[in-house]
């Protein structure tokens, strides 16, 4: 099976590899594999032409064990929750080690 991995699956694979090298406790590893919270919103906006258009958005809070959740802001009509989860994971790990 030659399935292309998503960005979040790649982030999880990186975590799995690091967890193996560090002999990370399996409970902590399980916690770090998934985001703490995902927020999904739909915002209806009345456009200049009178029509209503619904914009969807999301935010991921990956893990706040080492302090406040931090992440980037991305505005793009084709952004996916998968990409935002991966970016949130990487930001969490980066801020925990710096």
From TrEMBL:
<dbReference type="GO" id="GO:0006538">
    <property type="term" value="P:L-glutamate catabolic process"/>
</dbReference>
<feature type="domain" description="Glutamate/phenylalanine/leucine/valine/L-tryptophan dehydrogenase dimerisation">
    <location>
        <begin position="35"/>
        <end position="97"/>
    </location>
</feature>
<keyword id="KW-0560">Oxidoreductase</keyword>
<protein>
    <recommendedName>
        <fullName>Glutamate/phenylalanine/leucine/valine/L-tryptophan dehydrogenase dimerisation domain-containing protein</fullName>
    </recommendedName>
</protein>
<dbReference type="GO" id="GO:0004352">
    <property type="term" value="F:glutamate dehydrogenase (NAD+) activity"/>
</dbReference>
<dbReference type="Pfam" id="PF02812">
    <property type="entry name" value="ELFV_dehydrog_N"/>
</dbReference>
<dbReference type="InterPro" id="IPR006097">
    <property type="entry name" value="Glu/Leu/Phe/Val/Trp_DH_dimer"/>
</dbReference>
<dbReference type="InterPro" id="IPR046346">
    <property type="entry name" value="Aminoacid_DH-like_N_sf"/>
</dbReference>
<comment type="similarity">
    <text>Belongs to the Glu/Leu/Phe/Val dehydrogenases family.</text>
</comment>
């Amino acid at each position: 099976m030659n399935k292309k991995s998503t960005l979040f699956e790649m982030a999880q694979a990186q975590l799995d590899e690091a967890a193996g090298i560090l002999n990370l406790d399996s409970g902590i590893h399980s916690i770090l594999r998934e985001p703490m919270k995902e927020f999904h919103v739909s915002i209806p906006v009345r456009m200049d032409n009178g029509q209503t258009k619904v914009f969807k958005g999301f935010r991921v809070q990956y893990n706040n064990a080492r302090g406040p959740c931090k992440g980037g802001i991305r505005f793009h009509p084709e952004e996916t929750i998968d990409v935002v989860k991966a970016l949130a994971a990487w930001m969490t790990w980066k801020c925990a080690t710096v």
